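Below is how a single chain appears once it has passed through the pipeline. First comes the sequence as given, then the structure the pipeline wrote out for it. We keep one example in the README because the format questions we get most often are answered faster by looking than by reading.
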Amino acid sequence: MLGIRGTVVTPRKEVADGLVTIEDGKISHVERWTEERCERLLDFRGFYVAPGLVDIHVHGGGGHDAMDPEGIGGLSEFLARGGVTSYLPTTHTAPHEETMEAAEAIGRGMKGGVSGATPLGIHMEGPYISPEMCGAQNADHVRSPDIVELAEVIEASGGNLKIVTLAPEMEGALDTITWLASKGVVPAAGHTDATHDTMVDAIDAGLCHASHLFNRMRTFHHREPGAAGAALSDDRVTVELIADGFHLHPATLRIASRLKGPGKTVLVSDSIPPTGLPEGEYDFGGLVVTVSGGRSFLDSGRLAGSTITLGDAVRNMVRLAGSSVREAVEMASTTPAGIAGVSEAKGRLAPGMDADIAVLDGDLSPALTMVGGEIVYRRS
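Resulting structure:
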């Protein structure tokens, strides 16, 4: 029996001198330190032993693109270095044929297994978004929602389409939202100019998630709260926050996370392929993106995804927004696992759960990542 000793982080509390034991890839016990439990011990006293992080909005990293049929393996290894144990490879606005190729590749990766973080399915961001709010998505491929296309993506991925981000104001969006919900796919609002009332109609139709809240959404106004206001005020909706220090002001992070609570707030990286690479110019979905000073942006200066890992987001929520470690970890593990539909196996440290574990040092930097009881990253 393998044991990990340290400050154990659970959704309800921190166990200052705790122990997580592992047998056959599963967590067997979570309790205060007791030597009798261990045959082999990883001693991380002074470190946090947390559930593995779950990134449900990630386009790439380490030079690997979620839409590259050959990129999933490399992306999984890169994400594991940031404490991520499972994730949703996220597509960008592109021709249908490219999305289908990505769906097939992700489906194969899920069946064949990869080294590093585990892909759980697909987050399809676009192409059914507002042309006025496309941001770093390629406007040449923006189009109205198409249920036939979505059905083909579901089939190509082996039934593993998990989230679709679209603009509720697009023609046919409400019917598409209802259809997605009926198929067990999470309909999400993003890259949208929807009014508050249109967003409410979408929520009534089955929409239950908001991608990167505030970013590329109609500006919140006290007389027209827009999509962001509707998402914040409705308990049926979970919201994503990009906590990179650029997309959202620290006060905005505090307001949104406190209003929704950690059970309805999700930290995401929204990272793009150049994450972790040297500063310079890169291609992302046919657009030129510059990485400099910790930001990624277009020629216009508009932000284009992020260059953080989910581990960075956890640290930033504590430093910038004043969240507790427990709250930040919950927003990056337990809550996204529920949205991805894997809460019975991932996202918590509890007996019977998959032994997906992230060990974070006192600075909240990943020191060790374990997937299914196997160490996939250990900082030297």
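The chain has two domains: 2-49+360-378, 53-346.

See the next section for the split statistics.
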